[in-house]
Amino acid sequence: MPQDISxxxxxxxxxxxxxxQLRLFQNPIKGSLLITLCLITFLIIFVSIWxxxxxxxxxTEPVKMLAEATHRVAMGDLDFxxxxxxxxxLSSLVLAxxxxxxxxxxxxxxxxxxxxxxxxxxxELEHRRRYIEIILQNVTAGVISIxxxxxxxxxxxxxxxxxxxxxxxxxxxxxxxxxxxDQAKEFEEIRQELSLSPKGTLQRPIRIxxxxxxLSLLASFTILRDQDERSLGVVIVFDDLTELExxxxxxxxxxxxxxxxxxxxxxxxxxxxxxxxxxxKYLDKLDDEARPVFDKCTNVIISQAKELKHLVDEFSNFAxxxxxxxxxxxxxxxxxxxxxxxxxxxxxxEFKLDVPERLPDALLDPDQIKRALINLLDNAVVSMPDGGxxxxxxxxxxxxxxxxxxxxxxxxxxSPKDLPRLFEPYFSKRKGxxxxxxxxxxxxxxxxNGRILVENNIPSxxxxxxxxxxx
Length: 471
Prior knowledge:
By secondary structure, the protein is of the alpha+beta class. It has ten helices and twelve strands. About 55% of the residues lie in helices and about 20% in strands.
């Protein structure tokens, strides 16, 4: 056999042997390859999943971190910053969020500083406002402010007391609604005169009637202007001169009474004595025709001289009211002593004394109080010529530690228009009256640091109430 073929056969034999061996190892190799392939597949899947989770985490963690940071910002926590990793879009978003947080923190700091300064300024303004209000409420002068539209914006305590109005009745209302037609006309004239004033201020006396009471006021009107000289309204400052005028009139009348008493009293005694002497010396020497005329004339001179002397005594007493000599006094006993005289002298009038069981003593001048009581009783008796009832009531006010003495009658009463002048000297509606009785009563009450009230007696008549402090 040729050698080439022999080699081929050997190769074939060797290849067959290899084939047979491969046939024997086919299944194990196939299983190994399958196992290897499965392991590689599982490894690829695991790596893919791990990479997917890793990639997802790298995306969700910054987003979650931003969400938590946003919640903290929403809750007011600005003192933190986020850590930015990498240079991707999420890192840029985190950097932008940090910048935004810093801006918000700075803005909040500036806002808090501004708020603190505003609170401080508001506190100072509120303190000044309260201080000004305290000053306005405690000044004795009345202060009223009116804005440009004519509405009342301010009214202090003194103004409310002087005008006898509460601030709730006035503030927020047009001032024209609070005035009568005549008062509104007068205030319109004042407004026009004020607008023409170069200094923007005007002062004038005003007499105004409020609730049947005439007040004498000295008012100053001033235009309120801002920094740009624009008018903001008018402020009115006024003082009540009513009592001062009464005091001045009383002092003037006392001076007049003193001079009248001095000038008239001196010739009265010689006139009276001369008439009495003429009557004594010549009455029996005249004939029957001249004697009645002489008798009547001398009697008229003597009686008129006595009346003038009584009038001069009243003037003198009014002009020289002595200072009260205070001592412990029981008003019930004093009133009872006075009523004994009046009950006997006026049987057509019923006198009644109403006194509580326990009445404390008061520190008074009994002589002056008796005089005041007599003056009031005289006026009450004269007002009831046909008879009536007079009631004296004494009460004790424990809250104010005051004792009240009231005299009421059933006469015609007092006209409302006469009330403002009731205690003025020489003001009298009674024929032949001097007008000094109530003036003396008022002076006595004032000297005792008391006060006097006049009321209508129900159903008719007048009622005078004298109020004195116990001590």
